[in-house]
């Protein structure tokens, strides 16, 4: 049986307490999360990275500096100081821990943390525009407030700044870090292109969806958790293993995002109800449901095939009841349960990678806690 067939078979199994993948049984139990400890790690990332991030944004020519400041939540649409939600800050936290995994002080990872955060936000600015998302972090997106042109330009500028922040260090390690960041960025863009193309296809395999999400989300998280170590002088073997942890963590992160994109509470996510269904995204729950077979799967496939013949204006006329009905079909077909289990499979694989790196026990515990947080988060 092929791997894709195994994936489809798992999608058909429905609710369960454990699953078998690549010959191993992975429990589906939700790990206990040290919320206070994780919040402290995330806050440390914000505290150390934000001043450098702000200084980088101040290099931008007006009005791009103002637009970027709005995007990061530092000002409101009228330019007044604000304390908006600037995101979870998982990537900066990982970059600082990465430096510590290599035996260096967390401050060594700050340029990497800022560079990865700049690339991440470059992708958010462009994604919001391409996806037509009007809300992010509980307020209007940049393109909605300032127009599509500014969203594109500021996104491009943030990407350029990311490379500038690293290269101006002028070290061999900075060059190695920049190479990893640009490779991750190229994969991220590959993933976004795949994501858009899949919206217009009736069928996408589970294997294709996982490849897309590995590019779109896994690549940058993989870079985040290796870049601090590279800046600290770690060898390529160590960096590659840390990347493996980050890659699988990214797949777990995206699987949870896919669940929240359909069933997430808008008050927590800051997005519309059924946001991924509105955009016709072939996310993991949808793809797994279509691969499952059975009556619910076939009904869902027929609905999506009919959608392909409708205009965007006609699709925009769908009401809440229609999206709720589709979400129920996806769940009935097993797509929601399969995706939840996939998040845990990827979480387990990420944790296993850490066993191949010699690092302080405290740092390993913090990386495990962050992985646990990713799987159980609600936003």
TrEMBL record:
Keywords: Magnesium, Metal-binding, Transferase
Biased composition (Low complexity): 11-24
Biased composition (Basic and acidic residues): 1-10
Classification via Pfam families: polyprenyl_synt
Coiled-coil regions, chain positions: none
Protein name: Polyprenyl synthetase family protein
Domain of life per record: Bacteria
Listed GO biological process terms: isoprenoid biosynthetic process
InterPro entries: Isoprenoid_synthase_dom_sf (IPR008949), Polyprenyl_synt (IPR000092), Polyprenyl_synt_CS (IPR033749)
GO function terms (MF aspect): metal ion binding; prenyltransferase activity
Protein family: Belongs to the FPP/GGPP synthase family.
Annotated region described as Disordered, given as residue ranges: 1-24
């Amino acid at each position: 049986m092929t791997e894709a067939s195994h994936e489809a078979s798992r999608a058909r199994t429905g609710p369960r307490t454990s699953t078998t993948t690549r010959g191993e049984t992975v429990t589906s139990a939700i790990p206990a999360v040290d919320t206070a400890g994780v919040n402290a790690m995330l806050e440390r990332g914000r505290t150390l990275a934000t001043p450098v991030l702000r200084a980088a944004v101040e290099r931008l020519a007006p009005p791009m500096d103002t637009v970027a400041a709005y995007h990061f939540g530092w000002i409101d649409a009228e330019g007044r100081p604000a304390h908006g939600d600037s995101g979870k800050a998982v990537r900066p936290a990982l970059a600082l821990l990465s430096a510590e995994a290599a035996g260096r002080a967390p401050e060594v990872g700050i340029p990497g943390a800022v560079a990865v955060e700049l690339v991440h936000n470059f992708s958010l600015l462009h994604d919001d525009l391409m996806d037509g998302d009007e809300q992010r972090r509980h307020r209007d997106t940049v393109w909605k407030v300032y127009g599509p042109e500014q969203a594109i330009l500021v996104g491009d500028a943030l990407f350029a700044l990311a490379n500038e922040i690293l290269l101006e260090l002028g070290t061999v390690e900075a060059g190695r870090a920049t190479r990893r960041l640009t490779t991750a960025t190229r994969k991220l863009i590959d993933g976004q292109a795949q994501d858009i193309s899949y919206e217009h296809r009736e069928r996408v395999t589970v294997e294709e969806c996982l490849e897309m999400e590995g590019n779109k989300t896994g690549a940058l998280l993989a870079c985040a958790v290796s870049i601090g170590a590279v800046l600290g002088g770690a060898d390529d073997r160590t960096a590659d293993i840390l990347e493996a942890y980050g890659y699988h963590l990214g797949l777990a992160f995206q699987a949870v995002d896919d669940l929240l994109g359909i069933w997430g509470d808008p008050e927590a996510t800051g997005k519309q109800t059924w946001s991924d269904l509105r955009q016709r995204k072939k996310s993991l729950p949808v793809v797994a449901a279509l691969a499952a077979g059975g009556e619910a799967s076939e009904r869902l496939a027929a609905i999506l095939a009919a959608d392909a013949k409708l205009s965007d204006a006609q699709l925009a006329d769908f009401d809440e009841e229609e999206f709720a009905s589709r979400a129920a079909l996806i769940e009935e077909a097993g797509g929601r349960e399969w995706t939840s289990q996939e998040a845990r499979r990827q979480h387990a694989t990420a944790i296993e990678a850490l066993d191949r790196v010699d690092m302080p026990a405290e740092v390993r515990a913090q990386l495990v806690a962050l992985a646990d947080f990713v799987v159980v988060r609600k936003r």
